[in-house]
UniProtKB/TrEMBL annotation:
This is NADP-dependent oxidoreductase. CDD domains: PGDH. PANTHER family: PROSTAGLANDIN REDUCTASE 3, SHORT-CHAIN DEHYDROGENASE/REDUCTASE. SUPFAM superfamilies: GroES-like, NAD(P)-binding Rossmann-fold domains. Coiled coil: none annotated. Residues 20-353 form the Enoyl reductase (ER) domain. It holds the Pfam family ADH_N_2.
Amino acid sequence: MTTALPRTVREVRLAAPPRGLPAPSDLAVVETPLPAPAPDQVLVRNRWFLVFGGLRTLLGGEARNTPVPGLVRGDTLYGPALGEVVLAPPGSALRPGDLVTHLLGWREYALVPEAQCTAVDPALPDPVAQLSSGAAAYGALTRLTGVRAGDVVLVTGAAGGVGSLAGQIARLLGAARVIGTTGSPEKAARLVSELGYDAVLTAGSWREAPDAANPRAAYRAFAAQLAEAAPDGIDVLLDNVGGAQLAAAVDAARQGARFALVGALSGQLAQEGAGATAPLEIDAFRLILKGVSLRGYLGVDHPDVEAEWLRRFADWLRRGEIRFPLTRIAGIERAPLALRELTEGKLFGTVVVELPGHG
């Protein structure tokens, strides 16, 4: 028996470019007619979609040279989503009920070109794990920095979707000590007790008003905490933040340290601006003398990483060797508030909106 399709569906659109961090009023949940698929399109009923901080940059109107396009007033938001196939083109390998991922989240139903649908790995204990941001952490740690036995690894922004997996991945790859950073003592405690971080630092957060007014004070506060947690320095940095934390990490680098830059939350989630820049001052002389490598990570430059990560992630999950911290937000109408709370640092781990009618 075929389930009747709705005549209208809901999606989240940009109502107005945000001034500072996006507020729920900047987004609108609207009803729109459900269009018929074109010959090469798959109709997917979304079950979950990812809420991620990078949207702030895409919404701000000043995104330049980003791997995906920025958004303007009236556009429907997008991002990673997981759903079930409702209709597929004739001759397609996909069948109704198949679970797929794609990049047209923030809507209840998506019309997705068949070539842009990826079947969910059946080896994953929970299909929503395919929406994790762990591929960025895994790719940066295996392709850019490497992790050697005995390494001291620092992960900034450790309570987010990338960081909550990065510390665990570093440990599984052989790190001897893993240090994280986050903005609150509550999240720091969870990172230690639940995710195995050896130490978590909270000084130097870009969210604290005095830091914005006096970046040198933020640097000094963080550098002092880092020196206590890693008195002999660090070998690897996976940086999601930039700002004072990256500057202090340069000073704490051991000879031959390897740094991978994955995010720039100090700029993306700053109260002011459009989230499209993250300037900072670092000591280039120290980079040279210590032979530090510093590289940015983009997933599009490493197309082989995603499949490799999913295989290892599924195996680690089945063995109980890794945890997948997940915050579920129920209902598309709560998505605008979820984005605001994520940018304010109130949520932990990977954040997904779960659409009703699904377990």
